[in-house]
Amino acid sequence: MPVREMTELIQNGLERAVELMAVAAHNSFRFGDRNTIKLVSLATEDMVEIAEFCYSLGDMSPLAARDGRFLMELVKEPCALILIGDRRKSDFNYNCGACGYRTCAELNKAEAIESLTARGPSCQFKNINLNIAVNAAASMAWRLGLHCRVFSTLAFAAFALNKMEGVDLAACVAVSTAKNDPFFNRHQYWTAEHWDEIFKKEFPTFTRGFIGAVEDE
Asked: Which of the four pLDDT bands, split at 50, 70 and 90, describes residue 202?
């Protein structure tokens, strides 16, 4: 058996880990036993496109711009981005009213509202199921020793760029095999100008702290 270098082992291990994360998300508990999520692993060129899109939203969403800058650095070392999505309409027939409509039928007949982050209105249990799947994928990544973080910003950018068809809601899990955990200190991607002139206006109750933004007591 030929000697295999660490670089090759890590890259192959990352690809295998992504597959196991997909299995964990696929098999996670769901209300009504309805496995309707979709899941894709995005290529590096897709991640670069997402990063550029997020950065372009600086005036609208400072957090998205920060995470766009972060993603451009993340792709310099082995990493992966898993996108998980689902439809907004209910197939549960719970008629619980959590969505704001009296019945699931009323929700499903409602006109879809387009937004940057998702299409709504959406079934509460679809959102819960989606988050269960995302957390299952992230938990598997942690068990496998990967650096990991769940993102909404990168997910809504992927959603806006149609990286996954046939979904109305999306979330994503980013993983990395970098030498140091890249998800620990993302506030380094704020410049002083961004912080003073943009973030304070958007989030006046927060201050810059040890790991980014912490609520001011």
From this structure: low
